[in-house]
Amino acid sequence: MQQDKIFADHVSVAYEKDDESLLAVDDVTLSIQEGEFVVIVGPSGCGKTTFMNTLAGLVKPIRGKVFMDGKQITGPSAERGVVFQQFALFPWKTVFENVEFGLKYRGIPKDERREIVRKYIRMVKLEGFENSFPHELSGGMKQRVAIARVYANMPQILLMDEPFGALDAQTRTIMQEDLSEMFMMEKRTVVFITHSVDEAIYLGDRVIIMTARPGKFKKIINVTADCLIPNRRNLGYDDVVNLKAFRDLKRELWGLIKAEIVEKRIL
Amino acid sequence: MTEDAPKTLLYENGAEGKICLTNILGNLMVETRKIRSRKRVILSVLSVIVVLGGWFVLTTVLRWVPPAFLPPPQNILTDFFRLLNKSYVGHTLIGHTLVSLQIVLGGFFLAVLIGIPLGIMMGWFKRIEAIVDPMFQLLRPIPPLAWIPLSLLWFGIGISSKIFVIWLSAFVPCVINAYTGIRLTEPLLVKAALGLGVKRQWDLLREVAIPSALPVILGGVRIGLGSAWMTLVAAELLASDAGLGYMMQMARRALEPSIIILGMLIIGILGAIMARGLQMLEKRICPWVMDKER
Amino acid sequence: MSMKAFGPQFLERIYREKVVLSLSSVLGFIFCWYLITDVLGLIPALFLPSPEKVFFTIYEKIFIPVGQSTLFGHVGVSLLRILVGTTIALCLAIPLGILMGWYEDLDSVMTPIIEVLRPIPPIAWIPLAILWFGIGLGSKVFIIGIGVFFPTLINTYMGVKFVDPILIKAAQTLGAKDKDVLREVILPASVPLIVAGIRIGIGLGMMCLVAAEMVAASSGLGFLIMLGGDNLKPELSITGMILIGIMGLLADTLILAVEKKVVYWKKESQNG
User: Fold this and answer.
1) Of B68, B133, B216, C64, which cross-links B181 as Cys (Cβ 3.0–4.6 Å)?
2) pLDDT band for position B78 (50/70/90)?
């Protein structure tokens, strides 16, 4: 069998809050293949973000191990780039300098860096804003910079933690289409976290539903393989949303999540 | 800092949709603001004229207030021009000012040079914080100018005793703000830097913590300057043989209030100019900080 | 590699080591002081008295008067001065600040005058204050008052001026009249800033107290500090410094406690 790109082996993660240790992720096992787009959906506070931080190496599991290409993950690394919901741009750096940031630490010479930065700023459609500071940009543009910053760093895996959660609905739709396009242009392994069922089905090859805390995997659905026409990445958001397969799947997933919210009273 | 996130969020949601409406409203507001600002200027000018005029009338025309209590405003002006090239208690006005400036700037720069690195280290390294902070907390409540007698005892009446006290007064805010600034570094930005491949502590400090603390650090520098300026006056009032504070103290003994007020005005103006200069420097150094946050 | 060892301190939480280090730092400081003065005699007592000498001075002066009164007397005088000065300053600054924030015309009239007076450090008023009020209570109260007045005024003004406009709009659309808005929205919303201003003001007032008492007084903690220097009795100065430090600390603690009470609706008051 081909080696998994990421393999989480019976992972449990706790986090401290007010000197109390809470179990956020409970005994989760998952393998992700190279080039796959995996989306994790779940109710608020279900440990999605904690799980992603574990994949990133920012948090250490209390039980179990996470492997990338068969090697255990022990700390953060440029191999796994993270896009955060709150953008996390360096406010004192221009757009160009933000995108350039990781490249400096990979020891890439200056001329080459400039080429790469240009390329990815073009990819996220932000030409002309190279010298702007983040506070001069709208939310959508900020997130574009953050995406370019991670893409330019050539990580093998992209971890996206509700990247569009802070954007308004219109901007969000456009960002989803653009991300889908970018994913086709430069195939990377993506792990994507969201609240939105629509977003999950539209973007994900595989969608994982998580339970409320402590987070476990409730169901895993192979969207591309089992449910939808596989070439939906060529279609616009509107067209996909109106497919019957999409609507059926959405109803099913929403039912699962709603049950979770009602049952555990996390309204 | 953490409260910022929802605010920006609120601002960004639907910002596009509001553009037309805000433009119209904006134009209206600019119009009313123009009218208001004109009225404001008139009132401000009137107020200054009334105060100066009242002062003049009370002291010069009606002579209700004796000049030994409050001198007429024109006396202050004439004293200013008189002392520009005539020496008063040892120096001309410019001479006294230069003496004061030298001490303030000397102590202040030493404080910045030592205080900011120390504060940064305290904010970043837990061990240094644990060792330095308690002593700091112990000494902090003592007003710096209370050190003047000890400082005189240690360094004599010369320039070094004053520089020490002024250094102390500016040092404390420099350290505290640098320390607080580093501690307030957004953990998310640290995470982002780690995820982008930063490996060494030093790079994290240099690329993330220090720039993010910079506005707070510069705020501390500004407070330090104000504090240094105030302590200088106290030190010169108490033990000195030159400087603006000394000049004022001597003028008090000679019952010349116009020179006291002259000294106060010069101290105020120089302090305001220096604060303003620092503010401009801040804008230069931190172009990313929006005006509303200043 | 341990992930906990990586990253700045706010990513971790280890307390015990910190307590040990802090305690040993304070004890080490006092011990070094003791060592260089008493044990090794490196520094003459005229320069820096030993900690025990300071301790005994404090103890002794509780019963034996320095100048006109015992230690309690000096503390009491200083306390009285700061209380009177602060009270007068607050009674003037807070109403004026609110009015200036509320009435634009008053703002226009007062701002230029305040902007001229504000940059003058309160301590620079000492010679004039002595000329005007003599060296009694009056001049000290005046100087302390100036120290407290400006920060309180500025913060009150800012607090009133920069209340979130959305709250005002909300109140108006719910039917509140102008004076209701002032009482129900603007005052409560500006309280945190006002209290912060008072805190800064009292800190400054303490400094003014010391300075005024050092320049011209025959009682009070500042007088004690100065006397120690003049009579080459540094232990007296250090006694005064310790007491003024404690007074400042107590005042600050008190204001913080008041702040917590008054600003109960704010999750975390941003002190620091």
Assistant:
1) B216
2) very high
